[in-house]
Amino acid sequence: MSENHDVPTQRARASARERLAQERAAQQQKQAKLRRIGIGAAVAAVVVAGAVIAVVVTNGGSSPGASQSLVVPVNATGQNGTVIVYGNPNAKHTLDIWEDFRCPICDKLEKAEGTTIAQLADNGTYKIQYHMATFLDDNLGGTGSMDALQVAGAALNESTAKFKAFHDVLYANQPDEQTDGFGNLNRLLNLAGKVPGLVTPQFTKAVQNRVYAPWAAKVSAAFNSSGIQGTPTLKLDGKQLNVFDSQGNPITPAQYSALVRQTTGAK
């Protein structure tokens, strides 16, 4: 039976409940395994009031680069330059997005709605304020979230457009979160090569010397103190957007656009 019926039958609703119960049971087994091997728990998706809140934060995040001086990318904004603004800074509305480059649910949302989310920033409907997290490094082990973020900082230093392009490349090539596939600077530099004009000798040197690692640690700390409980989280003008349906699937681009119009009061 198709999962796309507009008016689901009792059998379809029962089937959906059974799938959700199976997913929760599988996730509980995964968490137990993580605890046994000393990595810690990470919840891949928690269904709350019809929305998915991905990967619950369980600790304070890692902070490499603390011994280096803080260098803030020239195109960063906010306190300590911990916010990345994409779109017209003077746009009437603001979409805040909290993400972790290693988060699989962020990747799921990006693949489903990333183009539409960006288009609405491009056409001036809102500006996007990105708030990046790195807590999956602590939850699952490794340094991939932090490494990806510090390389993204080097991209941001070039331009906001290059940050956004690199952001999109990372999600298009995201490895399984437990493999720590981003914890390799050579791989990240290869991915940066997919962004036209980004990789230069200066950019490569900044990445290899981890110039923006202290900044990445500041960005991570800002997330940890934000009160946001998981990624991805989206808020439009301070109102949280439920961008997943009751079965844990991203809503369609058309539904997302309608949700934005409803939230902003646009006709």
* Terminal CA distance: 35 Å
Overall SS class: alpha+beta
CATH fold assignment: Glutaredoxin
**Percent range for β-strand residues:** 5-15%
Strand order of the largest sheet: 3-5-4-6-7
Continuous helix count:
9
The CATH architecture designation is 3-Layer(aba) Sandwich
Number of domains: 1
Overall residue-averaged pLDDT value: 82
How many runs of DSSP E, i.e. beta strands? 7
CATH superfamily: Glutaredoxin
Largest sheet: 5 strands, mixed
Q: What is the CATH class designation?
A: Alpha Beta
DSSP helix fraction: 40-55%
The H/E string reads: HEEEEHEHHHHHHEEH
Rg is 19 Å
Shape: globular
Low-confidence region ranges: 1-14, 27-66
Please provide a written account of the structure.
The chain is of the alpha+beta class. The protein has one domain (39-264): 3-Layer(aba) Sandwich (Glutaredoxin), CATH 3.40.30.10. The chain has helices at 10-36, 104-122, 135-140, 144-158, 160-172, 185-192, 201-208, 213-224, 253-264, and strands at residues 46-48, 51-53, 84-86, 94-100, 127-133, 233-236, 239-240. The strands form two sheets. The chain has a five-stranded mixed beta sheet with strand order 3-5-4-6-7, sandwiched between helices. A two-stranded antiparallel sheet has the order 1-2. The chain is globular and about 50 Å long. The relative contact order is 0.18.
